[in-house]
Specification:
Length: 266
């Protein structure tokens, strides 16, 4: 196992084009460790004796930027996969290095990776607003693992391919998610009562279900050996996320209803 990890970390990236934050394990790990310390230890400690910041205007702008960013990313992804990239969804491989649309694939893949760093800002907003209860294990784990998985994939397998398919699904979810955040930011008092709030978690579960199904399909075919590792990773992490998000859904929406029913029946 140790030998495999050493080989994995010392492997030469398959794509010679290394965009910012895609060439150093140490840099990415340092960023993620700093993030964890700031949002779980340093930030809450500094805010302990301070009043929460009013960031309503900043958050509205942030949500709008995220919506526009992800809409453009979604359009670029669909265009590439269904158009000049001509992806074979039975075995989605990276475009060859000499393909005329390779740079488009690189930058679209990298744009998604960079967006995972943008997502980290959401946690800092919670810290500055003293919403520490929202900095849950699920929230932090999801942000950290998405940054690391994106980096790991780009470093080990290059830009595009099976990972590109999986991130395209996530982009669609993010458009709906930040649209919800923006709507709720217009009137925070109605946030808890927005009728489609719980469906965001269901949509995320559907996304993970699709990734799990497609990854399992690739592994069972056995013909697409180049994607075996990424398909295994997709299977493992989609299963983990299904468990975590399903647990959140049950605790947030199912158990409270049962308590209400029990109270009214007494």
């Amino acid at each position: 196992m140790i030998g495999y990890l050493q080989e994995l970390l010392s492997r030469t990236p398959p794509d010679p084009v290394r965009l910012p934050l895609t060439n150093s394990h140490g840099t990415v790990l340092a960023i993620l460790i700093s993030y964890l310390l700031l949002v779980k230890v340093v930030g809450p400690k500094l805010m302990e004796s301070r009043k929460p910041f009013d960031l309503r205007g900043v958050i509205k702008v942030y949500n709008i930027v995220q919506i526009i960013y992800n809409v453009i990313l979604c359009a670029c992804s669909a265009f590439l996969m269904l158009g000049p990239g001509n992806y074979n969804f039975n075995c989605i491989e990276n475009l060859p290095l000499d393909h005329e649309w390779k740079n488009f694939e690189r930058w679209t893949s990298y744009a998604y990776y960079f967006n995972k760093y943008m997502d980290l800002l959401e946690t800092f907003f919670f810290v500055l607003r003293k919403k520490n209860q929202q900095i849950s294990f699920l929230h932090v784990f999801h942000h950290v693992i998405m940054v690391f998985l994106c980096y790991w994939y780009l470093f080990q397998y290059g830009y595009g391919g099976h990972g590109f398919f999986m991130i395209s699904l996530n982009v669609v979810v993010h458009i709906m998610m930040y649209a919800y955040y923006y709507q709720s930011s217009l009137n925070p008092s109605v946030r808890a009562n927005l009728w489609w709030k719980k469906y965001m978690t269901i949509i995320q579960l559907v996304q993970f279900g699709i990734v799990l199904s497609h990854s399992t399909y690739i592994l069972r075919r056995g013909e697409c050996t180049a994607l075996t590792t990424t398909a295994r990773a997709g299977t493992i992490f989609s299963t983990i996320f299904i468990i975590l998000f399903l647990n959140f859904y049950i605790r947030a929406y199912v158990l409270p209803k049962k308590k209400v029913v029990q109270k009214t029946s007494k």
